[in-house]
Automatic annotation (TrEMBL):
<comment type="similarity">
    <text>Belongs to the short-chain dehydrogenases/reductases (SDR) family.</text>
</comment>
<dbReference type="InterPro" id="IPR002347">
    <property type="entry name" value="SDR_fam"/>
</dbReference>
<dbReference type="Pfam" id="PF13561">
    <property type="entry name" value="adh_short_C2"/>
</dbReference>
<dbReference type="InterPro" id="IPR036291">
    <property type="entry name" value="NAD(P)-bd_dom_sf"/>
</dbReference>
<dbReference type="InterPro" id="IPR057326">
    <property type="entry name" value="KR_dom"/>
</dbReference>
<feature type="domain" description="Ketoreductase">
    <location>
        <begin position="215"/>
        <end position="391"/>
    </location>
</feature>
<dbReference type="GO" id="GO:0016616">
    <property type="term" value="F:oxidoreductase activity, acting on the CH-OH group of donors, NAD or NADP as acceptor"/>
</dbReference>
<protein>
    <submittedName>
        <fullName>3-oxoacyl-[acyl-carrier protein] reductase</fullName>
    </submittedName>
</protein>
<dbReference type="InterPro" id="IPR020904">
    <property type="entry name" value="Sc_DH/Rdtase_CS"/>
</dbReference>
Length: 454
């Protein structure tokens, strides 16, 4: 489960040898540490117009007024090495309008600090936009995805796509920008995330480092891997947790729950009464349920021509049918109504397809459809439903992949490495947070810009 190659080319004597031989060196990624600055240097805000001015003002503003107190430049200064570039492209009207901000960004890329960030802010291309406007807006998509592939040193490029009518300073826009700038999004690369609505930021958060304070979260498949990391990360962010896993994983589950003073619930999520049992446990032990994280998942890979019926149906049952039934029980209960958050684990296989995974990809694409259709059901309560689609993550699931295929899979992303469970957990924590309330029914990839699919 460790990426030995990544370690060797970045440490000690083998680092020198790798450098001399010109071997590809996947970068060590900048990951979140409490208390560390949001970005480690000055930030260039590129783009002209009121939106760019408003964003720059917020980034540079005093913390007492909700600002981020960053060293913001509005023009690229010669010789300055930037930690981040925010390109505000919301006001482009024709493709030719992209030239100026794109070239400004290009001008500072060589000096971008390791672990740097480029974030675009743009508007979605809509069917009733005129052709020139739609071309300009859609152009941002190709620009950002290609730019991300050119970045080095663990730097990433991501975009916030702000729905019509939502101001660029809306709480969820700023929260998404902050997530992309931060080390929490270390393995999110080449992605555009839509912010659909300007909703209040939800329950007031006194402590920004603990946005989930007072919230009760259920995480399924919590005994190991990504689920365990989600538990630890959500607790770090202030939540109280119910950790769910099958009885066979009971001992591991108890260790995970005890380590964070959460409670453990041994339960097969495919049980017909799983939803009510989860709810009863959460209410009895914690008095409420605010966030449901559907993480439990299995693979039973086979080419479709060789697929036995039980391989197909067990994957669909755990990965999507159980999620649907549990969510339905929560919705019917009337207890999941205080700005609830649902976050479900999809997969890049469900987006791009993967040979040998017709069953798994059907289930994971199903999850993407499920959250899209669940979001409007939760919206009346200030709730959201979103998915996180991991690419290759270093867990026991991927440790089962044959060694050579595993090595290749790791390098098939812009960041040239697999992600860590915590990278997925950070995305889940972000979508579960009150400030992400304007993101509704979306799927965020955490894949290092895996080269397959979009
Ligand atoms: P994992 O196999 O390490 O852990 C999955 C956990 O789910 C296990 O603890 C298992 O006991 C539990 N589980 C399985 N069936 C269950 C059931 N019926 N009821 C309750 N718990 C059950 O997997 P992981 O790599 O940590 O993956 C977590 C999620 O992320 C899954 O949904 C997976 O499909 C998804 N994902 C993982 C990767 C990756 O690269 N590891 C990539 C894309 C998506």
């Amino acid at each position: 489960m460790t990426d030995t190659y990544l370690h060797l080319v970045n440490h000690g004597a083998t680092r020198t040898v790798a450098k001399k031989l010109g071997l590809p060196r996947p970068p060590v990624l900048r990951r979140y540490e409490p208390g560390a600055p949001l970005v480690a240097g000055p930030v260039l805000v590129a783009g002209r117009g009121p939106d760019a001015d408003a964003v720059a003002q917020h980034l540079a503003g005093p913390p007492a007024e909700g600002g981020w107190d960053l060293a913001v430049h509005r023009h690229a200064d010669d010789g300055v090495r930037y930690a981040a570039v925010v390109a505000v492209l919301t006001e482009v009207a024709r493709p030719s309008d992209l030239a100026d901000p794109a070239l400004v960004v290009g001008g500072v890329l060589k000096g971008l600090l390791p672990g740097g960030r480029v974030v675009t802010l743009s508007r979605p291309a809509l069917p009733d936009d005129g052709p020139a406007l739609a071309a300009a807006r859609q152009g941002v998509d190709g620009f950002l995805r290609s730019l991300a592939k050119e970045l080095r040193g663990g730097a990433t490029g991501n975009g916030v796509v702000v729905a019509a009518g939502v101001p660029v300073t809306a709480a969820s826009v700023l929260a998404t920008l902050r997530f992309f700038l931060s080390a929490r999004s270390a393995y999110v690369d080449g992605q555009l995330l839509e912010v659909d609505a300007d909703v209040p930021a939800g329950p007031v958060v006194a402590d920004e480092a603990r946005p989930l304070e007072g919230r009760v979260v259920v995480v399924t498949g919590a005994a190991q891997g990504i689920g365990r990391a989600i538990v630890e990360t959500l607790v770090r962010d202030g939540a109280r947790v119910v950790a769910v896993d099958v009885p066979a994983a009971g001992e591991k589950l108890a260790r995970v729950a005890n380590a964070v003073r959460g409670t453990a619930l041994q339960l097969d999520v495919t049980a017909a009464d799983a939803g009510t049992r989860i709810l009863e446990h959460a209410l009895a032990r914690h008095g409420r349920l605010d966030v449901m994280v559907h993480n439990a998942g299995i693979t039973r890979d086979k080419l479709l021509a060789n697929m036995a019926p039980d391989r197909w149906s067990s994957v669909l049952a755990v990965n999507v049918e159980a999620q649907l039934r549990i969510t339905e029980a929560l919705l019917e209960s009337g207890e999941f109504v205080d700005a609830p958050r649902l976050v479900a684990l999809a997969s890049t296989s469900g987006i791009a397809g993967n040979r040998g995974q017709t069953n798994y990809a059907a289930s994971k694409a199903g999850v993407i459809g499920m959250v899209r259709a669940t979001a409007p059901l939760l919206a009346p309560f200030g709730g959201t439903a979103n998915a996180v689609a991991p690419g290759f993550i270093e867990t026991e699931m991927t440790a089962r992949i044959p060694p050579v295929t595993r090595q290749v899979a790791r390098r098939l992303s812009t960041l040239q490495q697999g992600g860590l469970p915590v990278d997925v957990a950070e995305a889940v924590a972000f979508l579960a947070s009150p400030a992400a309330g304007g993101i509704q029914g979306r799927t965020l990839r955490v894949c290092g810009q895996n080269l397959v699919g979009r």
